[in-house]
Amino acid sequence: MKVIGYEASSIEAKRFSRPGEHLANIRIDHNSTVTQVKKVSDRTASVEFRFTANYTGLGFIKVEGSILLEGDTEALIAEWKATGSMPGEVANLVHNTVVSNCIPSALLIARDIRLPPPFPLPRINIQKQGPPPSRPIGPEFA
Fold first, then answer.
1. Which residues touch 128 (CB under 8 Å, ≥6 apart)?
2. How is the chain split into domains, by residue range?
């Protein structure tokens, strides 16, 4: 299977806290859920998803949409109807596609509604360097 299309159909975001109000130990949970798998044609299937970034007590960001897959759709549709899940490798492909497309969108939305980034930003720690090791001044002769 391969991904041939991605589309976000709904974006919802809300901040519950007031500007300037700081909460300690903010927990951010991410969730990617497949809500439906439909056959589009003999070789393509549409996978509908919901991605949420939940800021406990602070707000949320929700993105809904669909991914278009190409490949052996018969096996995918059959397993979805029987078990409500997808084969492991297809599920990995779908969830990785959802997360890689939704996290950048969630980052921009979080900035606009003044929520923290939905993932930890790297911390830069520049160490103060000590004095250089002492060496004799002048040319060295062997």
1. none
2. 2-112
For the beta carbon of residue 1, count every other beta carbon within 10 angstroms. 19
- CATH fit for domain 2-112, picks 1.10.287, 3.40.50, 3.30.70, 3.10.420: 3.10.420
- Residue 95: band (very low, low, confident or very high) from pLDDT cuts 50, 70, 90: very high
Other Cβ atoms less than 10 A from the Cβ of 71: the count is: 16
| Adjacent-strand bridge partners of 60 | 14, 54
Q: Find tokens 């939305």 and name the residue.
A: 109
Terminal-residue alpha carbon distance, the chain: 68
pTM score above 0.85: no
Residues forming a β-bridge with 29: 54
Helices (H), the chain: 73-83, 88-112
